[in-house]
Design a protein that fits this description.
heterodimer; A: alpha/beta; Rossmann fold; Alpha-Beta Plaits; 2 domains; 5-stranded antiparallel sheet; 12 helices; 38% helix; B: 377 residues; abc type-2 transporter like fold; 4-stranded mixed sheet; 15 helices; elongated
Chain lengths: 314, 377
Amino acid sequence: MSAGCESAPIIQTRSLVREFKDTLAVAALDLEVQRGELFGLVGPDGAGKTTTLRLLSGLLDVTSGSACVAGFDLSTQAEKIKPKIGYMAQRFSLYGELSVQENLAFFSELYDVPRGEVKQRQARLLQFAGLTEFKDRRANDLSGGMQKKLALACTLIHEPPILLLDEPTTGVDPISRREFWDILTELHLSGTTILISTPYMDEADRCSMVGLMYSGKLVVSAEPKAIRARIDSDLIELRPDNWDSARKILQEIEGVREVQTYGETLHVLVDSAERRLPKIEEALHKRNIGYRGLREMPLRMEEAFISLIRKMEN
Amino acid sequence: MSFRHLLAIIRKETQHILRDRSTFILVLITPTIVLLLMAYALTVDIQHVPIAVLDYDRSQTSRAFIREITAGDDLDLYAQISSLTEIEDLLVRGAIKAAVVIGPKFGQEMQTLRGIPLQVIIDGTEPETGGFAVDHLSLRAEAFIGDRLAGRFHEFGLDANALQPIDLRVRTWYNPSLKARVDLIPGLISIVLGFPALSVALTLAHEREHGTMEQLMATPVGRAELLIGKMIPYILVGLLNTIFIPILAILWFKIPFNGNFLLFLFLAALFLFSILSMGIIIGVFIRTQAAALALSFLLIFFPGFFLTGIFFPIVSMPEEVRLEALALPGTHFAIITRGIFLLGSGLDVLWPYAVALVGLGLGFVAIAALFFRKKLA
């Protein structure tokens, strides 16, 4: 089996299945991640993203199917895979009573970082994560964003060729999120293969590849541009006064494929913005519904994502 | 096994013990406090038993007798009464546990060597206390009467001792004052050293609850490195207790220590190894601290009390229970502590128990290692 893995992509799963008591968390997953990709795993809650990442990290037994990670067979060589990956769990999972530096030191030892390099790598990662001045602070006393950066630093200490990150930016403020992604981009540029799950569509847009999971399966796997192109629609945005009836009216108009709500704003997916924009204006005028900001918008990952999920649900 | 990984786990766990307040208290302070509490609460030394005396004689002799029996800490004279009905009243109210009735011719009969009229009434609802009062009274009465008799015999030019056909003298060895604490405390040590075992079970569950176990499992650390690295700091902490607790027992409770202290430390280390292995097993199977706590009490502390022979002699247990008792490290260590403290036993006598501790420990570790997998579910 391992012979098959040597020539396989750096991450490859074939009909990978993981069953819990009464649920199929991962159902026949076929995922391929090429070396050096920054692969974003998106999908609604419960789609199986966390289970997939845990499986690939060797933290769960495979129910059936097979997977290759870093040239090793996941079912039989999980311990050989572990030095090759940096895994970051969704929850903060470092030692709160230990300081930033002590956490880094602990993982340096467990990952067998060459003794001569430990100090230098720690210093560089602290710098990299912007934690140098907090190195003596206990991990419990760090802000959420700093904890995430420390966790990332700990997974990077052995310079793994593969990073598996489970929603690393969930619950982090926008500035920390941006900083975190700057670090990821740097790692991506330096050649690290990154598989990251995220609930944020703007983050998916920053990936080189995006995979959409639904009900334990990979529904789409393509470049962000290609995914957006799949939704063969134009996007029209508007802020109606009467949000609820506007939505109903818009859904009736010919050529309108989908209406998505974003707070007070409606996003209308149509076959052609040029043809449908006047029709929308006309329909709203006829019913005396006021509106602001009616305009065509470039289609984002978010609309594409919602549209794809809706198709799955129907 | 990577020595580097092992050291890293040991260092991390030591930092955890020193910095996490609840762990620190549990492993370093609780054993001593629990020992103190239990030694006081569970002591069956009976002292200051209140009694009433109904003295019909009111002679010099009877007054001397009352002074004699109430001297010391054992019996306290609650009241001198004048009628039998008062006795019942006092017993029912619980004011006294026993009453002594001195007959009207007590002093006189003592002179004439006829039957000496003396009655003792005890509260049968507390048989131990009552029994103690009777034992004490008869002992004191015999001594008192013996003294008087010896004087009378002497008057007649006779040797009192020569008249006694049997000279039965019961002597208790090793615990001459028959104080329960003396044999209880060495046994209790084996219970309070269960706290490090509880703690190691909790720390594994803690790591699962806080997600750090997930992170650890994602690293190349070995299973044995993880389990052994977790045990070692708790063994060391347990040994700290092992040094401190006997000092407390000796200085505070005045327990004799007749054996070799280094031997005691060595055997305590073996005991800690085997009891911590039980803690590790619990930690391997249980995922939450609450459940680990409950199971530790069920598997470590309750059997520690009831099955290890500290309170209830193992010889009186049914065969199956006796086998279960032998599978508990506490049973062997209770024998070891009593042996070393009270008998001054050496390894020549205690070696089977040492072997049992090592065997049990290795068995438990093997079970733990067999079932501990680096998987989340």
